[in-house]
Every structure is written in C-alpha cells, then in structure tokens.
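Reply to dn_fold:

You asked what the input looked like. This is it:
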Amino acid sequence: MTQTSHKKASAAAKKTEAAPAKKRTPAAKAKSTKGERSLVYFTGLRARSAKENKAQKVQDLFDAAGFASRIPQSALTAVKVHVGERGNDTFMNPVLVRAAVDKIKAAGGKPFLTDTNTLYNGCRHNAVDHMQLALEHGFCEPVAGAPFIVADGLRGRCYEKVSIRKKHFPTVKIASAIADAQAMLVLSHFKGHELAGFGGAIKNLAMGCSPSEGKCAQHATKFYVAEDICVGCGHCIAHCPQHAIAFVKKKNRKVASIDPKLCVGCGECLTVCRPKAVSLNWKTELVPFTERMVEYALGAVTGKEQHIGYISFLMNITPDCDCASWSDAPLVPDIGILASTDPVALDKACLDLVNSSEGFAHSLLRSGHAKGGDKFKGAWDYTMGNVQISYAEEIGLGRSAYELVTL
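and this is what came back:
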C-alpha cells in the first residue's frame, strides 16, 4: 500500500502508508499526477469563520481537484445525488449540493440534479413519487440551485446500452439522462451497506446510475427465509417489489416464504427484516454481486471519464444505505469531505479514514470499535466491501493507491 494518511490516522494504519498528508501549492498539485498514486483532497469540518464553512469547503475542494477543467462549456452536467427515503434524515445536505452546483455554473456548465428510481417499493419507485420526495428533502432549484430530473424516466425504463466487455456483462444498461450527459459530478454520502459493505462513489455510480433492469442484473441474488427465526410480521411482504414473498403455514404458525422464480434479488427484504430471518449464502453470493455492481459503475463512466469529478461526504456515517426509511446512529464521528477524479482512490481513502476513527459504543458496532478496526464489518460481519476496491482496480475503473492532500 502506497497511499499517505490523514494526519489523524491511527498508528496501525500509518505502518502501511507512505507519509502524512500535506498541503500543496497549485503547481505541486499538477506535478503529482505523474506518479502512480491518485490524488484525493481532504478537508476537515472545523470552522471558525465564514471562509471555513462547509459550503466554502466544498467549493475549495472543487477548485483543488480541478473539476472546472472537466466541464466543457455549456455542457449538460449531471449532478448525481441520492435524495434519501422518507423517514431518513442523514442523507446529503442539499445546501452543500448547491455549493457544488454554483461552481459548475461558474465553470460554464448547465447542471441538473439526478438519480434513478428504486427497484424496491418505496417513495422513489416511480418518477412522480421520486420527484415529490426530492422536493420535500430540498433537492430542487430553490434550495440546491438546479432542477431535479429522474434519470431513467417515469417507470425506470429509459436507458442506453453501454459496451464494457467484462466478466459478468458484455453491455450494461445506464439511465438515459446520465448516459446522455456531457459531464458529471458524483456527490456521495459515504456510509455502510448490508450487502455491499459500504456505499460510496462506486456504488453511487453502479446502483445509482442504472434503471430497474440494471439493478436487477446487478443483484441477481436469491434470498431465503429461516423459518425458525421468522416472526410473521409481514414487513418483507409489504416491501417486495415483485410480490415474491407470501405467508405459508409451518407448524401451526405463519412464516414468510420467498418464491425464487419471482425474486429479483433486490435485497429490500433483508434490510427491513427486524429479526434478521432473511438471508443468503454469503460465501458464494457476495463476491459476484459486488463484481457485477463494479462493472455497472464502469459502464456509468465509460465515454466521459475525463469529464467526471467526485466528492464524498464523511458525515453521518450510518450503518445503512440512505434508502432505509430510518437513520440509525452513526458508527464513528463526522470526519470531513473528500474529492478526487478517481472514484476508487476516493472510496479507499474514505474507507481508511472511517477505519482509523474510534467507533461509537452506542451504535450498531459489534466489534472493531478501536482505531484501525474494520467498522463496516463490525456492523455487518459477513460483508466484503474490500472487493469493491480490488475488482474496480482490476477492471480499470481507478487505482487504490492514493495520496491524501489536506487543504
């Protein structure tokens, strides 16, 4: 491992890293791109003046990463966001989104906020409900500075096929508004995820830029219900988009049962099941699921790699995706905001910073509380989030070696 660490990284993490992060002049920043490490820019959250507020920090990161040069004049620029779910309150702050939108406008781009409809039944399953929720959460022009467009259309059927020729997919389906955009800024709230291990830039590209058919193709995972654990609450039945779950009678009681012929593997039943009766074969299913997801991320950037920038927010680092209709307590304290032109390096830096933090005692963490502990495995011990990084590097999405530059 060759990446440098944030100056507050744990001693254990520092043993595997080259040198502490350091400030650079603009000229030094330009020269450093010649090495084998990708630059990741970092800013902490301390502020004692208007020049240090979070919106200003986002704009400083935009400038430091050189995003303006990636936006052609008058380019229709997708600002990839996640508007959260009704009941969730730890989604990305639209006021901070506006700071990035203003920079895109100043660079000559024409920004629009965008996301895709969900596979599961919820507040974003179709464009009408999705746009209403986006408005409720502030992802609209009066607050965030740009209109919100659902990238895959009314029912998630608008997409373009993109050739990638990889192990799992020769082509992938990317939402039309994202495929047609001339530039893109990917804004991600970095947090945990029960299937993917964590959700950052890679997952935002993959699940976030694909229509319903693309999401089905990525999941393609079959779940089952452990009858001895099921309490018959019916939450999984209510949330299943394919009506693949029904009650059956077992030993004089009703339990849920998943029809494998109807299941599309979206994993919503896994998320909403309170007693954790829903499961899958973690040893055989997670790696191919993650690889499929990473291949979709590659498809989302293919053809415009030089016109994309990435900003990730290490704030409200919860164990669950923002698709959940709740917000659990964060696993670690807020850390900062990061930016890069390399989504793999960015995710790796975010992951390292999370793991080098002290975990909260009163959180979902069951292990890994100490600095250097694997926080997301501490919450979901069966996940393999590291596969996102290793496979993304293998197929050329980016590199895992990075240099962290503190502004």
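The radius of gyration is 21 Å.
Hope that clears it up.
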